[in-house]
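Posting for a labmate who doesn't have an account.
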Amino acid sequence: MLTRMLGLAVAAVCCLGLFTACTSSLPIKTLEPGPVNLGATKQLSIVSGEGRRSARETVYNKIIEQARSRGYFTVDDRSEEGIEVKIAGRTATMEGGEQGLADDTVGLRIDVLEWDASQNVRTSTKTDSKGNERTVETRMTEGEVVLAVTAFDKEGKTFIAEKEYVGKASSSDKSVSEDTVIDRAAEDAVRRMLADITPKQVTRKVRLDDDEEAMEPFIETAQAGNIAQAITDLKAYREKNPNSSAAAYNLAVLTDATGDYDAALALYDKAMSLGNKDFYSKARAACASRKAAAEALQQ
């Protein structure tokens, strides 16, 4: 009797969604465009910029270094070719230089608008153990760097037109120089710019259908990381059990994980026609979203 009562209690907790081990899921990784989608390009060219030369050189080097560490874009510096970039509305025109942009390259004009540091005093209130308040003054070195960025393709289409990225840094350490604080602010500005244009890898868990006991070995194989084997085994099972909605659905999830979104969507539709459950339609919608993201990165 006690065992039965415990089993019912666990089932009740599962129904409330409080016991996550009650349902099986599969993590699916996908690459999604950043807030600014540059399409299929993975090559950036810094072609020109305005502002203090030493500041521009520092920024260009940081763009190259940070892009390399992110591992998505390759960046080259063509700023010494004498290229001039003119911007009119949403169109950029590149003049001069040894050659134009390649088909798969996005050009960057980076203008350094601000490159400053200042000494400021911050005040705060602290309370001691007896409840007495006192005002504390902290002398800070604060730096700010503002970049105006224009990104455009071979045809002059602008993805970004003179958008400003503000980088800030501060330090209360007297041994830290103003130049160091400005350098950190420049890193921050470049980081914000690259975060805007760099696709990011997103992992989302998709629920599997484990209501049928026969699904257990396929799910275990997939969760162990052998997606290909799980797909092969599940296809063989479906040939003998064509009316199993769980088999069709789980095969859809596994196919979704491989990036074959068209095939996965067809399988989701099949599963929904055999026995739709609430999470079937949610998983299908998520797959459609992944397909749209993949297509956006190929434009």
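Reply:
Got it, the structure tokens are right above this. The domain at 208-296 is CATH 1.25.40.10 (Serine Threonine Protein Phosphatase 5, Tetratricopeptide repeat).
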